Amino acid sequence: MEYVRVARSGQVPDGYVRRFFAGELEIAVARLRGKPYATSNYCTHLDCLLSSGKLVDEGIGCSCHGSVFDLETGEPVCPPATEPIRTYPVREEDGEIFVGVTEQDVAEGGPRRRKAGR
């Protein structure tokens, strides 16, 4: 695993989630109660962008249908989603946010929207 710089710390204020990329890997980076988190950017229910959602006490909420996912584990804590999202390790150093990804994560591009016909 390699830690990739994805953002400056100030780009993700407390209580917000933003979309960033680690190579071709699209991720949602959030900060809740001062701690940064990184997850896949698509809800497992109907592929809505999690970076368009809101942070709530329980985790990251999808703006489309209200699913909520735990930021530590990716597990859904509020339906309709029943499948977890992917989570990634995060380090914050010298005003920069780094996300831990593998070569396979970057090569696959991570979870993405479903392709037409699926």
Automatic annotation (TrEMBL):
A Pfam family reported for this protein in Swiss-Prot or TrEMBL: Rieske
Signal peptide: none
Coiled coil: none
InterPro entries (alphabetical): Rieske_2Fe-2S (IPR017941), Rieske_2Fe-2S_sf (IPR036922)
PROSITE patterns: RIESKE
Rieske domain span: 3-99
Keyword match Magnesium: no
UniProt keyword list: 2Fe-2S, Iron, Iron-sulfur, Metal-binding
Protein name as it appears in the record: Non-heme iron oxygenase ferredoxin subunit
Organism: Prauserella endophytica
